[in-house]
Every structure is written in C-alpha cells, then in structure tokens.
Specification:
This protein has helices at residues 2-20, 62-67, 77-80, 100-106, 120-126, 139-149, 153-178, 205-211, 218-224, 237-240, 261-264, 267-270, 279-282, 287-302, and strands at residues 27-29, 35-41, 44-49, 55-57, 74-75, 110-114, 129-132, 184-190, 193-197, 229-232, 244-249, 274-278. With 304 residues, the chain is of the alpha/beta class. It has two domains: 34-151, Rossmann fold, CATH 3.40.50.1980; 169-302, Rossmann fold (3-Layer(aba) Sandwich). The strands form three sheets. A five-stranded mixed sheet has the order 10-9-8-11-12. A four-stranded parallel sheet has the order 5-4-6-7. The chain has a three-stranded antiparallel sheet with strand order 1-2-3, with no helix packed on it. Helix 6 (139-149) runs antiparallel to helix 7 (153-178) and helix 7 runs parallel beside helix 14. Residues 23-44 are annotated as: Disordered.
C-alpha cells in the first residue's frame, strides 16, 4: 500500500527534476526512486543501481567487491572459508546460485557471479545479475571491470597502477637474488589429486609469472599454461618442480605426497626453497588476495 502511495509522489518529483535539468546519459531514476546506471555486461546492457548497497557476491568475485569497500550481503562457501576474511564476513550468510529463496529474503540490489552458474534467469528476476567468464579478461582488467559495475572505476584503476609498480619492483629484487633463469612451480593437492598451475589460476600465479615476471619450468608451460592447471601424479613431481616451489596446502585434504621420498628429494625441498601457503587464503586473485600473496613472496624470497 505504501509503495502505491509513493509512486505518484515520486512521479511528481521526477517531473519537477526534469524541469530543472536533464539527467545524465548513463544515470536515471528507477520506478522505486533509486538511481540506476546502464552497465555493458558480456550479455548486453543491464540496468544496475548507481550505488549498489546490497550485493550478493559469488565465486570467484566476492573478494573484488570486498576490495572496493562493499561488504556483501551474501557470499559463496569458498569465500566464506577464507581465514583472512573471517572477521569481515562473520555475520554474512553463505549462498549458492541454487539458493533462490534465501537470496530473495536478503533483498539484494545486485548479484555478481561467474557465467557458468545456474539459474541466471531466475536470479535476474530477484535483482540485476551480472556474470563474467573466468579468464576472458586478465586478472587486473577484471578488477577494473567490477569497479565499473560498482561505480568505483577510479579506485580500481588507482589500485591496479600501484600494484603493478610494487610487484615489478619486488620481482626485480627477487630475480636479482635468485637469478633471471630460476624457475618457480605452484602445486596444490585437492581431493587426492596433485595439480600444477599456469599463470592465471590464483594461488599466486598471476603475481609470480605475470606481475613479477618469474619463470615457470618448461614442462609446466607445456602442460598447464593454456588450460590454467594440469593434474599430475606424485611420481611426476620431479618433471614439473622448479628451482623454487610454492605449495598451496589445504590442511583438511590429503597431503601425504609431502611425506614421500619423491617430494622430499626434490632439489627445491632439500634446499629449503619450498614455501608452503594456506590454500584457503591463497587461492583467489582479487586485489586483497594479490596484496597478501605479494607480501608472502617478499617474505619467502627476500626475507622481508
């Protein structure tokens, strides 16, 4: 009833506003009175809030939203498990693309997720829904794009420029210490399978290979660069292990390969050049995580 009474009043306000000046081309008033903007998504133009307040942020983009100063009203389970965001997300519920009733109850004004998620048409009925194809944009372009969506492009661009400068400087220091030709591998065990990673699959790969310009072993480049990751057996570790090893480790999964002679005899392990990271805190490539990864590499490679 209240909404019906408000609409005539809002229409009068809009008429009055139009007499004072035309609205900007990319912003207009919605029927509910909130300003909206037209955002060009992968799937075409989407009317989104000019200043989103209640964002449902799903894997793998919740960290991007957090990095832009917006606390989501709901996140996916992987984001919730990140120990570094435990305090920030303490009271934030977990949802998936299938929890439609729960999402409705949260009354979001924007939903962000990956293009492969389910129920996108139904989610779009709840709130404007914008999805991205993982890897279509590089990791820094992706952050700027989400900055555009959230009307925070200036902040996103500023962070990217600063990060690139800091990462380049750190990379130069690391290469000066370990040698230009030294190689680094990133491995992770998940559900009894070992994976080696390319240059754009989180786990610090963007920082190591793209931002800092460190080298990956030829075998990793051959098998993992294009798909992003490659499954190997414990016996194959010597073929894929670089001079340095980044071990992304889930404490609650099978890491028995680390107790084998094959692993312990890797040159990187024997020389103390295998650096173990908490996989739950290390797996994403949002700005907050990238900063964390960069500091991790400073500490492990440079002792800073």
């Amino acid at each position: 009833m209240m909404k019906k009474l408000l609409i005539p009043f809002l229409l009068i306000c809009l008429v009055f506003a139009s007499a004072c000046g035309a609205p900007s081309q990319d912003s207009e008033k919605s029927a509910e009175g909130g300003e909206t903007r037209t955002y060009q998504s992968e799937k075409g133009a989407v009317e989104v809030p000019a200043e989103p307040k209640r964002v449902v942020a799903l894997h793998p983009y919740a960290g991007h939203v957090l990095s832009l100063g917006i606390k989501p009203v709901a996140v996916d389970q992987w984001t919730k498990m990140n120990p570094r965001w435990e305090k920030q997300l303490k009271d934030v519920p977990v949802v998936s693309d299938e929890n439609l009733e729960k999402i409705i109850e949260l009354n979001p004004d924007l939903i962000i997720g990956i293009s492969s998620m389910k129920n996108q048409d139904k989610l779009n009925e709840i709130a404007p829904t914008v999805t991205y194809t993982y890897g279509k944009l590089d990791y820094l372009e992706q952050f700027i794009e989400i900055g555009k969506l959230l009307n925070k492009e200036e902040e996103a661009v500023k962070w990217v420029e600063d990060f690139k400068k800091r990462a380049k400087e750190t990379g130069e220091k690391i290469k000066a210490k370990i040698g230009e030709d030294a190689t680094v591998s990133v491995i992770e065990s998940f559900e009894k399978q070992i994976y080696v990673y390319g240059e754009n699959w989180g786990r610090g790969t963007e920082v190591l290979y793209q931002a800092m310009g460190l080298k990956m072993p030829e075998k990793v480049k051959e098998k993992a660069l294009k798909p992003g990751y490659y499954a190997i057996s414990p016996e194959m570790l010597p073929e894929f292990a670089g001079d340095y090893l980044i071990v992304s480790k889930f404490e609650d999964t099978d890491n028995s390969y680390m107790e084998t002679k094959t692993y312990k005899n890797l040159p990187a392990v024997k020389k103390g050049r295998a650096f173990v990271a908490d996989a739950k805190a290390f797996q994403f490539n949002d700005p907050d995580t990238l900063d964390y990864q960069l500091e991790f590499f400073k500490e492990k490679f440079l002792g800073q």
